[in-house]
Amino acid sequence: MTPTAPRDVAVVGFAHARHTESTFGTTNGVEMLAPVFAECYRQTGLDRTDIEFWCSGSSDYLAGRAFSFISAVDTIGAVPPISESHVEMDAAWAFFEAYLKIASGQADTALVYGFGKASASTDLDSALALQLDPYTVAPLWPGRHHLAALQARAGIDAGRWSEAEMASVAARATGRDEKDLMAEPYIADPLRPHDCPPVTDGAGAIILASGDRARELVDTPAYITGIEHIADSAEFGARDLTDSPSARAAAV
Questions:
Q1: Across all residues in the chain, what is the average pLDDT?
Q2: What dihedral angle (degrees, nearest 10) is formed by the CA atoms of 75, 80, 82, 88?
Q3: Nearest to 181 by CA among 163, 194, 172, 200
Q4: Hey, what domains does the chain have and what are their CATH numbers?
Q5: Do residues 28 and 115 make contact, with C-beta atoms less than 8 angstroms apart?
Q6: N or C end of the chain: which has fewer CB within 10 A?
Q7: Is this prediction's pTM over 0.85?
Q8: Burial (0-12, 13-18, 19+ Cβ within 10 Å), 80
């Protein structure tokens, strides 16, 4: 249960699109979101008109236009009128807003969704650099792989892991030979292709419900017992790149 909230809130449905390196369709996410919503409805027995609150998480940077969420609302439908909100960040932030909406008694059901179509970007490194500190880091236009390489190098120099250990992780995940992976050229020293994630399009959605409503919808609601919001410093010189205090705090 959720002792710190006025009401219990539970997850009653979840679905995600098949994450691929490129998906057909526009950057508004409608093509990805429609089947994801349909699966959430199927799991809960709810219909689009049964959702009392909607909240989306999207990135105008990745979509390449302002207010990119507006077109995604086509997936929701504007008739009858809906209660909708949105955040310029990931769906975890939208999840928190929807959680508060139900916990405070303003809704009994909510659907949270997030989507992104990174493959649509013609210069993904520049787009992602815009999310960095606008005064000291973004003007340098660092590439996403180069930023990750700074962290990888810090860990190697500190003896926390090695290039071979990084390759062994990829070998287990892909079934490829570790020696073949180590023979590939660097993308950004010490990162090779197997160390870097592919550009991926995807979408996901979660249906939340108040305690009483959740028990009506599914046999085993997943109650939310706590939420932690914490962020590590965005200043590269002000933190240890081999450690993530936010991840450790959130796991407690």
A1: 87
A2: 30
A3: 194
A4: 9-122+199-251 (3.40.47.10), 130-195 (no CATH)
A5: no
A6: C
A7: no
A8: exposed
